[in-house]
Amino acid sequence: MTTRGDKQEEERVRTRRVVKTAAACSVAALALAACSSSSDSASSAPAGSGAASAPAESQAAAPGGAAYAGPVGDGEGQLNILAWPGYAEDGSTDPSVDWVTPFEKATGCQVNVKTFGTSDEAVKLMQGGGWDVVSASGDATLRLIYGDTVQPVNTDLVPNYADIFPDLKMQKFNSVDGVAYGIPHGRGANLIMWNTDKVTGPIDSWAPTFEADSPYKGTVTAYDSPIFIADAAVYLMATKPELGITDPYALDQTQFQAAMDLLTQQKELVGEYWSDYTKSIDSFKSGTSTIGTSWQVIANLAKSEGVPVEAVKAKEGATGWSDTWMVAKDTPNINCAYKWLDWIVSPEANAQVAEWFGEAPANAKACDLTSDKTFCDTYHAGDTEYWKDVYYWNTPTANCLDGRTDTQCVPYSDWSTAWAELRSS
Predict the structure, then answer these.
(1) Rounded distance, CA 354 to CA 379, Å?
(2) pTM here?
(3) Where are the alpha helices (DSSP H) in 219-288?
(4) Mean pLDDT, consecutive 10-residue segments, the chain of 425 residues?
(5) Which residue intervals of 47-107 are DSSP H helices?
(6) Which end of the chain is less crowded, N or C, counting CB atoms within 10 A of the terminal residue's CB?
């Protein structure tokens, strides 16, 4: 596999996180609202805080029926995969990047891959049937579970599950009431990045990107998505504790308005909103942007192109993502599906995926196999403390995800409306 920095243009192909821009913008997120409860809902507590309780509706029986009892036998001969671009590479993007063909040869399961651009698209495709496994982000997993679209996963049938980092297992976005619904794939955090030639550093806070007295007015950059409201909420959790925000995806009307007021204030500072990571790099190269929201992979690529930047997780915490491989409830190819689950999180494949895509791997042993031997340090793969104040993307619902029962929270449809109004004002 080609190492990072060998070819800048290839790197831009590798790091396909751009396709997730609209993942948080799904209108179908409303479907989850009916499934969330109040007192026992799955919250978006920090990533390291462990699994949350299941929604009350799930207490009687977990959705999706029983997990496959096994044993995993001979494959059925085919496997239909729904995946984010870069998660199931067969050499067609780059001949040197291929973990699908070896899987086919080893298992006899011929793979059909379809990529999707948003979580909404993934959910709709899975609901339409014909797909055996899907790589789902946190804003899609619960919709798939409570939509009775995926089945529980028997982790005993996935030997490589034993080597998954513990703080990714049985979390609020991949389990319900102690029942696993998928195999963790990888994760990343949203960082603050700055041009070291133009910004007085080091920087350790989101303050220069939000506060009205920022000296970088006109050159601040921000992520262009309704889910970015959660980033404002994370900052308010630390700077205005009197608001009582404990979950950036569970905002009552007062808390939500405070976040929108902060974003309105920020808009006066913003020179460019970004959703395409290549445009983010270009804006830092041109000087249009000097400080703002970023990803580790953007920082790495910018540096490889000679841009003087640094990036860190701010002291107030951050939002982030974590993805999960899930199995369709009615798949006719259950053995091939389980073979894939184990293959894709094997140390070898997980190392390849992580480097190609630009995120922390889920399998601890993958860190020994990355071509860049500092990769896992750069992406904080095994740094449990690092992830404790990273709030993985989740779907805001009217029933507050933080467990409150004495109020209603603002659902994602209203987040989307408010963001559109902000951007058009």
Answers:
(1) 10
(2) 0.78
(3) 229-239, 253-267, 277-286
(4) 33 39 35 35 43 35 85 98 93 93 98 87 94 92 90 98 96 90 95 96 96 98 92 98 97 98 98 88 96 90 93 96 95 98 98 94 98 95 94 87 96 91 97
(5) 100-107
(6) C
